[in-house]
Amino acid sequence: MSLCFADPAAASWPLHVVAAEDLAGFRDTLAEPHRRWLDAAGFGAGAGEVVVLPDAGGGIAGAVLGMGDAAARARGRFGVARAAARLPAGVWHLEARLSPEDRDEAALGWLLAQYRFDRYRKAAAPGALLKAPAGVDVRRIEAIAAGEALTRDLVNTPAADMGPDELEAAFFDLAARFGAAAAAVRGADLLARNLPMIHAVGRASARAPRLLDMRWGTAGPQLTLVGKGVCFDTGGLDLKPSSGMLLMKKDMGGAATVMGLARMIMALDLPIRLRVLIPAVENAISGDAMRPRDILTSRKGLTVEINNTDAEGRLVLADALALADEEETGAIVSMATLTGAARVALGPDLVPFYTDHDDIAAALAGAAAKVRDPLWRMPLWAPYEPMIEPGIADLDNAPAGGMAGSITAALFLRRFVDRARYVHFDIYAHQPTDAPARPRGGVGQGARALLEALPAVLGV
Question: Domain Cytosol aminopeptidase, which positions (predicted)?
Answer without folding.
Answer: 308-315
